[in-house]
Every structure is written in structure tokens, then in C-alpha cells.
Amino acid sequence: MRRIEPERRASAPLESIALVRFESAGLCLALEATKIGAMRDPSEAATPSLAELLELPEVPAPPRQRLLEIVHPDWRRYIRVGEPVIHFELQTRAIQPCPSLLAARQRANGLRALAWIEEPTGDRLLIILDAWRLPL
Known about the structure:
Helices cover 9% and strands 46% of the residues. With 136 residues, the chain is mostly beta strands. The protein has helices at residues 50-54, 100-106; strands at 16-24, 27-32, 36-40, 65-71, 76-91, 95-97, 111-119, 122-129. The longest helix is centred in the last third of the chain and has 7 residues, at 100-106. It has an 8-stranded mixed sheet, with helices on one face. It is built from 2 helices and 8 strands. A hairpin with a 4-residue loop joins strand 4 (65-71) and strand 5 (76-91).
């Protein structure tokens, strides 16, 4: 018996995107969930933090950290991020492209878009990065 899948409209825009949100250098950052293969406890191996890769100002490391595995068709790598690590759906209408001047200066660091998200303490800026364009 053949499974029947719901009909999809080719022209229908996505209403939301799955993201993995976390903390790094005091910032709230996110990567597309489809580019994350796994989350692990930090090991003894020297894994760079996202803050180190992006050359962000030094702030005290969060008390609890996780390793995220970035999966590319040609390679895999781990980065260290701060907790909480949260998988969530963000409405696409909440996503704002980066201002052109900022995007031109930050393209090499993987900066893709910005969004405001609601948290119990108020709205917070979410910086969305492209996992495949992070510095090596």
C-alpha cells in the first residue's frame, strides 16, 4: 500500500522555520535546525566556542555549555555554545533581513537575519547565522 502524503503547493511560502537558539558572548543566536546534526555534552577535546570563531568580545563563559554538530554535505564540525539550547519554530514574518551595510561587513561571519523574540523578561534580539558560512 502506498502512503498518501498531503498535497503541497509549490508556490506556497513557508510560514515558519525551525531554528536552534542558544547563548554566546551574551548574545542570543540561532542556526537553522536542518544544519544541526546533534547536541552533545562538552568533552575534553578542544572545541572552539562560537564566540571565539566570530571574534566576539570576551565575556565570562556560561556555566553550562553544549556542543552542536554542524552538518554540511562535505564536512562536519562542532562548536561550543552556551545554554539554554532551544529548538523552536519562528514565524517567517518575524525575520528581518540584515541592513545592507551590516550584511556587507558581516557576510564572512555568517550573519543572515535578525528577529525580535518574546521572552518572559521582554523582547530580545535574535541574531540568525548561517552555520555553513561560519569562520573556520
